[in-house]
Design goal:
The chain is an alpha+beta fold. It has two domains: 223 residues, TIM Barrel, CATH 3.20.20; 86 residues, Immunoglobulin-like, CATH 2.60.40. The chain has nine helices and 21 strands. It has a seven-stranded mixed beta barrel with strand order 1-2-4-5-6-7-8, surrounded by five helices. Strands 14-13-16-19 form a four-stranded antiparallel β-sheet, with no helix packed on it. The longest helix has 14 residues. The radius of gyration is 20 Å and the shape is globular. The structure holds zinc ion (2 copies). The site of one zinc ion has 5 residues, from loops. One zinc ion binds next to loops.
Amino acid sequence: MKYIARGNIHIHSNLSDGTSSIEEIAEDANKAGLDFIVINDHEHLRGKEMGLEGFYGDTLVLVGQEVNRVKNHYLVLGLDEVIQNNEENPKEIISEVKEKGGIGIIAHPYENGSPLVNNGRTFPWTDFDLEGFDGMEVSNYSSEWRDGAKTLLHAVYANFINDLAYIRSPNPKSYAKWKELTKKKKVTGIIGSDAHAPIFKVGPFKFKILSYKYLFSSGNNYIYLDTPLHEFKKNNDVKNAREALLKAIKKGNLYICYDRIEKGDGLLVYLKDNKDNIYLPGDFVPQGRYDLFVGFDGGRKDKSASLLIESYEGIQIFKLPVEEKLYLKKGTYNLHLSHKKHKNWIIINPFYVK
Ligand SMILES: [Zn+2]
Ligand SMILES: [Zn+2]
């Protein structure tokens, strides 16, 4: 039996350029029903040094880092020491994180920018031929929202009136690049919220857009675990909770959901061979015959969704729940669920058939 932990990654607190303290952010996350969050402030691990990792209500708070400012932003998880910026040489950053046993994730690799924010400035990743990174943001919610908000009117409209206006995510270039990379190697795909909750001032008015609360119900990561996080919470076992979560993220045992369309909890996706071995999304799978199961626990949401499988065979479409006998040949099988309201609702890490 697998358990699913739902959480938000890539959050900035007021220890860097966010607008709330880690304690306040944790409270918002707890109210949003998140099982975990990961803080990635720029250039330091002050939150960790201050002892702020741990359980806040039912939410586990972990502290990582975001390296670099101008370009080649890299999320680092699971380290106790700070990785120095090195804008021109991401290769060195990637190796350093790997050597020290951390997890490295490329942040917002492609962005279009908006004239509203920093004159349309973007913060791209410059070299995909590098080896050794563990994952990438297939989607960065704030960045994609900003790409759609071309004027102040757009921004107000999308934040306060039609909150589905800019869900065009994921960034098509990031999604295409990720799928291309997964054909050659394992690259864990995640969604980052990049929450800063900036405060805008227009004349006498002040308002916050993309608040923590807003982003916590916009897009999240759903991680498959052997033990639910609340079991660790009973003994306040932060160390093992952290380890279990990071291990599953590194393996890619997870799916991404645009919760703003509809929450994606309880999605079971696995392959079973004739010896009852189970393989999860993100796993390496031997070539052979399998039963594929894809469906929601309880089945309530199956009616809104269909499954698309992309592989060397092209695209296959199934109605949920899926219980299919398949022969899987060597190659990568990328899966996603399309919702009747949106074509990319849930993006599932691939099965890598060897
Ligand atoms: Zn960044
Ligand atoms: Zn960031």
